[in-house]
Specification:
- Helices cover 8% and strands 40% of the residues.
- The protein starts with a strand and ends in a 6-residue tail after the last strand.
- Strand 8 and strand 9 form a beta hairpin.
- By secondary structure, the chain is mainly β.
- The protein has three helices and 28 strands.
- The radius of gyration is 21 Å and the shape is globular.
- The longest helix has 16 residues.
- The strands form six sheets. Strands 10, 11, 12, 13, 14 and 15 form a six-stranded antiparallel sheet that branches. Strands 5-9-8-7-6 form a five-stranded mixed sheet, with no helix packed on it.
Length: 399
């Protein structure tokens, strides 16, 4: 819960978050999930600086640029932070990208991010006031329940940009009407546009939709959509799955109810469609990655209970929910067929090209060591009003 997840090629990378209410996972804990082999691998990145050993974060945001995973901001045992780390996914080596306190965003968590022209954009979040940090533009609203605390915190709607080549933050001006200050919202980028949905502002969990036009640095203001609308929520996921569709899953309602609903937004028509999802798997503060190679959205981790009910223990998940929202590649379909019919076809595997044979052999080893549903793939037909869901669990709990 409160972890980050990013996709790079066939892999989904998982890092940080809570193991329990008091323990944050640090930089030495990272998992990689191979979407074709359905295989988890625990890796040990190298941390070159002793002061980085203690860092563990939740509520961070993350992106990948040129095979480097960037993790930005978050909440740690020290409180809110505005650090930015980079992990080289090839060498598994962490680096810290330091900037002056006055040249970076205020410490915050539950923010969102995206990449445009090899630069990292972050928006919003919950944390310390903007004063004393980058503060050219942006609005801050204090949470009244923290006013008497040593470090009051609140919501902001600040847009900041980090240039990895220069190791420099900026807080550029923009046009139009931005979303109000918020946290635990979600964003999805399609082409030159970023869509932001929901999140919490003060005591309200919202259902508004906004668009930021990256090529014009212009906010759209609140967009009007057609069709039935999702309920207001925070701690949801919002994932681009094509050049005109975004997949919304789960979250936490105004009435503090964890959600298990799934929606698709057509960004060209500005129309919502609710999917018919079998079962009931509520999730909040989870992550979602679209894996184009298999045509699936992978929902991982999160909480399935009322996270604000402190009289009860949080019910945390270590499962993957798999939503088939696209058409798998022909290679994927053929390998799945060869594997599903291995009783007949395995004796012919040796005639395949080496890289295909290697994938089948590896998948066979995984299936013999971990119980996974190896059901056959979708036929390739897609209905955007329905979604197929599978469950895959980690070898042992990761929360």
């Amino acid at each position: 819960m409160g972890h980050i997840a990013v996709s790079a090629g066939p892999n989904m990378w998982i890092w940080t978050g809570h193991e329990n209410e008091e323990l944050y996972l640090d930089l030495r804990h990272i998992w990689r999930y191979h979407s074709e082999l359905e295989q988890w691998t625990r890796l040990k990145p190298r941390v070159n600086y002793s002061y980085m050993q203690a860092y563990g974060l939740s509520g961070s945001t993350a992106v990948v640029i040129n095979d480097v995973l960037y993790v930005i901001c978050g909440y740690s045992s020290f409180g809110n932070v505005s650090v930015i780390f980079g992990l080289n996914l090839s060498t598994l080596e962490w680096i810290r990208l330091d900037t002056s306190i006055h040249e970076k965003p205020s410490p915050r968590d539950k923010l969102t991010s995206w990449v445009y022209n090899d630069r990292i954009y972050i928006f919003g979040g919950f944390g310390l006031p903007l004063v004393g940090h980058l503060n050219t533009t942006g609005e801050y609203v204090e949470d009244e329940s923290t006013t008497l605390q040593a470090l009051p915190r609140g919501w902001n709607n600040q847009l900041c940009v980090f240039d990895p080549s220069l190791k420099r933050w900026s807080n550029p001006s923009h046009k139009g009407t931005p979303p109000c200050p918020r946290a635990a919202h979600a964003s999805a980028k399609i082409g030159n546009e970023v869509f932001i949905f929901g999140g919490r502002h003060k005591t309200l969990r919202m259902s508004d939709l906004h668009c930021f036009h990256l090529d014009r640095d212009t906010w759209s203001g609140s967009l009007i959509t057609s069709g039935p609308m999702p309920a207001g929520r925070s701690w949801h996921s919002f994932t681009a799955i094509s050049d005109n569709r975004i997949f919304l899953y789960g979250g936490f309602t105004q009435d503090e109810v964890p959600l298990s609903d799934a929606w698709v937004l057509d960004v060209q028509m500005l129309e919502w469609s609710q999917l018919d999802v079998p079962g009931d798997s509520p999730r909040l503060w989870h992550t979602a990655c679209y894996m184009a190679n298999v045509g699936e959205v992978l929902i991982f981790g999160g909480c399935s209970s009322n996270i604000l009910d402190h009289e009860k223990e949080d019910v945390l998940s270590n499962e993957i929910l798999k939503f088939k929202v696209g058409i798998p590649s022909l290679e994927r379909l053929c390998l799945s067929c060869a594997f599903s019919n291995r009783d007949v076809l395995q004796r012919e595997w040796h005639t395949l090209p080496h890289h295909l044979r290697e994938k089948l052999d590896c998948r066979l080893k995984v299936s013999e060591s971990v119980q996974v549903d190896w059901s056959s793939e979708s036929s390739g037909e897609s209905d955007e009003d329905d979604a197929d869901v599978d469950l895959v669990a980690l070898p042992w709990p990761f929360l």
